[in-house]
Amino acid sequence: MASASLQFFAFILALFGVFGDIAATLLPNWKVNADVGSNIITAITQMQGLWMDCTWYSTGMFSCTLKYSVLSLPVYTQAARTTMVLSCILSAFGICITTVGMKCTKLGGDTDSKSHACFAGGVCFILAGIFGLVPTSWYTREIISSFLDQTIPESSKHEPGGAVYTGFISAGFLLIAGVIFCTSCFKKQQGAWIYPPKPHHFPSTEQDSNAGYNLKDYV
Questions:
Q1: Quick check: helix, strand or coil at residue 170?
Q2: CA separation for the pair 40, 38 (Å, rounded)
Q3: pTM of the model as a whole
Q4: DSSP three-state, residue 196
Q5: Contact 4, 103 (CB under 8 A)
Q6: 3-44 per-position pLDDT tens digit
């Protein structure tokens, strides 16, 4: 019962991770303009994402421009696009597989099949968490290095946006959920490995017959 509750808790974490992963992929605020100078017009906020660049005005207007050209993008942006999409796909597969393998569901067949499905779903979550953690870390590193570069004017510097933090948190949720699913499937097997069953020795009928034959020789 405790293992089923733990799996359900991991499934809820995975759901939050999937939704956060999709939101981080689609949000346009991966980096925002930094208000660090005295000549910055604070009434305008410029944001850059993986798929579009947006500008928000103090009047309430909001305009976005899609990034059609892939080759014109920096390498870290192209890598972030690919890995985030893979993370979303793997996490979606993990949700489908763990739904079959969870102990609280009636799908998936016998216990061994459900354990294997649960383990496969946990591996999908771990891979999705890694694929989500790598681009957010790389993207943040590029933003910080550009921010600390003295040759770049202050008006062109940016800071990490909300999508980056959302990606970090979602990747953590997916990693935790994947570890819980993988470890919860092998508790019984680990107990069997730690305390292996003792072999039973049965007397051989051949030895009994030989013992009887030897007794006759002494008579």
A1: helix
A2: 6
A3: 0.78
A4: coil
A5: yes
A6: 788 888 999 999 999 999 999 999 999 998 855 445 455 557
